[in-house]
Amino acid sequence: MSLSDKVANEFAHFLRIINYKNKGEPDSSLSEADKKKSISLMRVNASGEVSAQALYRGQAFFSKSPEIKKHLLKAGDEEFTHLEWCSKRLEELGGKKSILDPLYYAGSFTLGSIAGLIGDRTSLGFVEETEKQVVEHLKRHLNEMSSKDAKSREILEKMLEEEEAHGQEAKEHGSKELPLPVKGVMTATSKIMTTLSRFI
After folding, report:
1. 138 and 156 in contact (C-beta within 8 Å)?
2. Which residues of the chain have pLDDT under 50?
């Protein structure tokens, strides 16, 4: 494809992701307190999957290796499945996705593009570190979420398993460990996003 076609394709993907909804049957099995907690956590996870889509797409757009590009796009497809799960669960609980998702997507695509331009090993390093941080916050969410919300917990446990696999795959493809200051910035950025997404 020409550059203009590639850009148009990425913009179409952006619109698809930020407008994505997955209808589910209303779930009235939880108390209001448990439901409110689950909605806030699943909104955070849905936003995380929006950001993951953008990060992988940005990295793949500038990847210099066809093999790495294929790997990134495959991982992105698997992350979209996570977005489907989170969006559907939010609908079932009566919640909504974050209104800040377009900003998260734009910021993550930019970060992924920068990583891709630096080089494939650095790009894979971003994947590995991102997945490590995602795994840690999923574990925290499982500790925080009500034991009565078995359906949401099942989703998070499956996501946890697959995110760990993505990080390991990045390592196996030759990821380069990121400098500590970069990891710190990623942690701080993630903290801001997850805090905001709990509420809006």
Report:
1. yes
2. none
